[in-house]
Amino acid sequence: MSDTLFMYPEYEVVRDHDKCIACRVCERQCANEVHSYDTDLKKMLADSTKCVNCHRCVCFCPTHALKIVKSDDTYKINANWDKQTINEVYRQAGTGGVLLSSMGTPKPYPVYWDKMLVNASQVTNPSIDPLREPMETAVYLGKKTAKLERDEKGRLQDTLPPQLKLSVPVMFSAMSYGSISYNAHESLARAAEELGIYYNTGEGGLHKDFYKYGKNTIVQVASGRFGVFKDYLETAAAIEIKMGQGAKPGIGGHLPGGKITDAVSTTRMIPKGVDAISPAPHHDIYSIEDLRQLVYSLKEATDYKKPVIVKIAAVHNCAAIASGVARSGADIIAIDGFRGGTGAAPTRIRDNVGIPIELALASVDTRLREEGIRDNVSVVVAGSVRSAADLVKAIALGADACYIGTAALLALGCHLCRTCHQGKCNWGIATQVPDLVKRLNPEVGYRRLVNLVTAWKHELQEMMGGMGINSVEALRGNRLMLRGIGLTEKELSVLGIRHAGE
Predict the structure, then answer these.
(1) Is the pLDDT of residue 210 over 70?
(2) What percent of the chain has pLDDT over 70?
(3) Predicted confidence band of residue 484 (pLDDT cuts 50, 70, 90)
(4) Which residues have C-beta within 8 Å of that of residue 327, sequence separation ≥ 6?
(5) How many Cβ atoms are within 10 Å of 18's Cβ, its own excluded?
(6) Which of 244, 296, 315, 353 has most Cβ atoms within 10 angstroms of its Cβ?
(7) Do residues 19 and 42 touch, judged by C-beta distance below 8 A?
(8) Does domain 3-97 have CATH number 3.30.70.20?
(9) 3-class secondary-structure state, position 161
(10) Residue 329: what pLDDT?
(11) Of 421, 417, 345, 343, nearest to 52 (Cα)?
(12) In terms of Cα–Cα distance, which of 190, 209, 195 is closest to 443?
């Protein structure tokens, strides 16, 4: 018996038939086959059970005859067994499978960015006008442990390990080819090149067409080793070892077989149409010593010319893990918080495992400073960095830069319907269906990404100017510029900030 018999649709398609002209645009635009035309009734109909609330039909309706509303149908009120919990039991009883979900958790956990306020300067430490005075937003990622050395003529020698230079402390998060479309990857790559930043390939290899963007590309080496070979490593500006991911700490990756097309198969070096499963652990890494071996193997393979990043998930002991990573030879640590997005994750993992990136970042930065090894690595954070304000707060808590993923996809047109794993993205982003992929025009997509990061750069400069700070380097780890509001003493202690009013 189908589980849908037990459940009323989560969303309802509401059509104003007085406005509807039966142009059938909604029918053509919906990959989920929600809309249809009844020739006998001579009007459009909708099957709300198929609707994922992507809003494609709403946006394209020429007469604004459509809207999607959340169903007000409810079970008998029960504080313990809410509607979502009951529906999830029905789904599993009908399928016998693990529930899969996409994007970040929708659970109402605390968002600590919103519980921190930024301080401002006024008289004794005057503010800075970013329109008329120099304001440095560029950052360098990599080890800063080089000693000052001179040659026999007294000239300074460059002994600094390889660095990544960013015009603004923002990069595009790891999103693999397969989980997102060719056009989405092209948009990210082109935007990174124009902005002078980097985009991350994720664990899906690098399509041959995008090797030309190598100077702005970070390639990933995950447990599945998909698409990893010499040219892949040598093309990149940096290499990232994925040990963990914020949306699914402790488990591996999963790309449904329906997304493994010919091109994805070739790029990943795996069979077409077969689920791509990255195992939970790297089967050659069970200690920091093992991790160190892979770090140096990758450095050796690329003549020590590229920084190596180690990506970990934000979990309760991430400060100790980061300490080990900093001693492993890695140049950069990336920490991914539990609100981070994903193409497909077990619902139980996504909604119940990991910790907020704000707390993880603060604890890692504190630990590295206490151990005197903060300069051994740069720290990059991810996991629902939503705005320039979040970016400023992350840097003040100790980050060198931030990865953005969901914000970048929103710039491309994503409506957060959280059904990426189904492969039917109506906006041409999380799909490999040719007719859907072409809905995302890379020319438009990359320009929107450039606009987004440019806007954030202006806001970063404005906020730094208001603090009387003229460089990102002076903001990094400057927790005196943050104040908490509505936080407990323990939360303030972990974040290392004072309460507002102090």
Answers:
(1) yes
(2) 99
(3) very high
(4) 288, 292, 373, 376
(5) 7
(6) 244
(7) no
(8) yes
(9) coil
(10) 95
(11) 417
(12) 190
Determine the pLDDT at residue 348. 93
Spatial CA neighbour of 244 closest among 329, 323, 166, 310 = 310
Each residue's pLDDT tens digit, 372-386: 999 999 999 999 999
Q: Residue 171: name the closest of 389, 455, 444, 380 by CA.
A: 380
Three-state SS at 339: coil
Q: What is the pLDDT of residue 150?
A: 84
Q: Cα(298)–Cα(241) distance, rounded to whole angstroms?
A: 9
The Cα–Cα gap between 218 and 239 comes to 6
Residue 2 has pLDDT above 70, yes or no: no
Q: Are 302 and 240 in contact (CB under 8 A)?
A: no
> Are 151 and 157 in contact, with CB atoms under 8 Å apart?
yes
- 393 CB contacts (<8 Å, ≥6 apart)? 113, 116, 118, 358, 482
Q: Domain 139-145+164-499 in CATH: superfamily? A: Aldolase class I (3.20.20.70)
User: Which pLDDT does position 4 carry in this prediction?
Assistant: 62
- Eight-class DSSP state of 486: S
Which one has a higher pLDDT value, 259 or 300?
300
Q: What DSSP string describes 197-209?
A: --EE-TTS---GG
d(CA 165, CA 188): 17
Q: Which residue has the tokens 């050796």?
A: 300
CA distance 307 to 322: 17
Strands 378-382, 482-484: pairing kind: unpaired
Supply the pLDDT for residue 125. Answer: 84
Q: Work out whether the CA dihedral 195, 437, 251, 358 comes out positive or negative.
A: positive
What are the structural domain ranges in the chain? 3-97, 139-145+164-499
- What pairs with residue 220 in β-bridges? 240
Report the distance separating Cα 305 and Cα 300, nearest Å. 9
Residue range 156-201, pLDDT digits in tens: 887 889 999 999 999 999 999 989 999 999 999 999 999 999 999 9
What local confidence, expressed as pLDDT, does residue 192 receive? 98
